[in-house]
Amino acid sequence: MIGALDTNPLVNGKGAQILRDHGVEVVTGILEQEARELNEVYFYYIRTGLPFITIKYAQSLDGRIATSRGDSRWISSEKGRRFAHRLRAQHDAIMVGIGTVLADDPLLTVRLVKGRNPLRICLDSHLRIPLNSQVLSDDGKTLIAIIDAHDIKKVEAIQRQGKEVLMVQEGANGRVELRSLMKVLAERGISSILVEGGTEVITALLKEGLANRMVVITAPLILGKGVEGIGDLGIIDVGRAIRPSSRKVKRIGEDIVFDLRF
Ligand SMILES: NC(=O)c1ccc[n+]([C@@H]2O[C@H](COP(=O)([O-])OP(=O)(O)OC[C@H]3O[C@@H](n4cnc5c(N)ncnc54)[C@H](OP(=O)(O)O)[C@@H]3O)[C@@H](O)[C@H]2O)c1
């Protein structure tokens, strides 16, 4: 019994046919919807040629992901952060904008749970990343996506550190063009990306319609003026709000986690 046939054109239905040719009775489509949901990343990746993108961030009750001085450590609880590390381990890559690297200098590895470290990707159009950033300083894999390589010495220094600098297409906003970067990453076999902020990158992905899933960890604290999780999406009527196609809500310790699909 087969839940859902593999939609990869290289294999689609061939296995089932071989079984049938050898006299084995094959039934397909058993709990097909559930099987597709279980394999949502793979099916999306094969169908679109793009990685499945999950946006994840931790916010205060009043929707802030950092204070007005840019401090975000830590908004979620220890249990919430362990959950976030489990999410990391389930993805091929983790992506952040250069704003997050400059503000937090994150390591972006899986430390609080067992699991492999995904590739780290930083969107950094003009190669502003400091050479002593944590994502450039350890043995892990890091890719810096840029649109302008005029500082060739810095490019070479990063390459000597064993990290990759990838020149990508420039978008209309004079920044890394997200859709073409996603295509390049998919061609390299990256089927899933966890986007960990910050505001500008999250907003750009939502505007582009590139996000498939959003995991929002809401902690019971209030920060007042600060950095918002999502910026201007040009929505002026509530009727035009982005509404997820499915949603799950759970508690992790004191935090509430919204797990949304678009
Ligand atoms: N609570 C949380 O979960 C959490 C998680 C992460 C970050 N944060 C907080 O978020 C804040 C940083 O957010 P941020 O908005 O300043 O920075 P960001 O979103 O991390 O990075 C924005 C920068 O990325 C670069 N970029 C390149 N291509 C882009 C594209 N296509 N679209 C958008 N950006 C692109 C741009 O710089 P160039 O033009 O130079 O390329 C842009 O200024 C920090 O305070 C940090 O603490 C909180």
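The CA atoms of residues 244 and 262 lie 5 Å apart.
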